[in-house]
Amino acid sequence: MNKRSLVSITDYQKEDILRILKLTEKFDKDPNRDLLKGKVCATLFFEPSTRTRLSFETAVNRLGGRVIGFSDASTTSSTKGETLKDTILMVSNYADLVIMRHHLEGAARYASEVSGVPVINAGDGANQHPTQTMLDIYSIYKTQGTLENLTITIVGDLKYGRTVHSLIIGMSHFNPTFNFVAPEELMLPDTYKVFCDKQGIKYTEHTDFSPEVIDNADILYMTRVQRERFTDLMEYEKVKNVYILKKSMLDNSRDNLRILHPLPRVNEIQQNVDDSPKAYYFEQAKNGMFTRQAIICDSLGINVD
Ligand code: CP
Asked: Which superfamily does CATH assign the domain made up of 130-285 to?
């Protein structure tokens, strides 16, 4: 097996996605194995994170590896003016794998080009979050029993939502139908609509979070309006609470509907929705650890069997 980076979900073909799902199932059954003994993984988080960093670090720990890194770039020499290139060159001298989150779109691709070891993108600006997509796809597969021909309603910040962008591309291999629900200010960028058109993927666009887009869905993918992506906070204030999922809105939804959210949540899902058997976002986050174990082993060329 070759070592390789995961920068964008486009780095994975359909067969790669299916292979990672199979590996993830194995880690879901047994996450504690000594597969990373002697390996050091670096987690470089230039942007805040709870789930992604901790699930990556737990994934490594449960596989017997070691973790170095930082969760706050203000404690690093980047504050003295050290470039990303120099940081990556240094860290790839120390570690076998670099896992990086950065606020700049394209930072992960750049890092993968200068690094001597594989780089896994843990989110780059509003661009991509491919490991989130793999855990989303695993969660969809686990709850629906298939990835094919599903209707997926995606709600919220479709403009800056990197998890949304990656999910559209990742699910494009499986003949989905998308309902895109966003306010005018946060609609899906044209590039992703052109992508859907080219792939022959059916989609509808809505500004209303209407019963119709919930009742015809297999997956309801809620997202947060991301304050940190707005340069004008007045614009954020206008749209921050635009869609709020209430429990009663699920009354006529399909039995198999599952609600996903990459988290963190702010106001977009009311707390009492958590009691619904259709709420799956905390299990989804748990699936992240298994998925990341699979991706780490794949990137390092480690044979799981
Ligand atoms: N889903 C996600 O990326 O969460 P964190 O920002 O907490 O890592």
From this structure: Aspartate/ornithine carbamoyltransferase (3.40.50.1370)
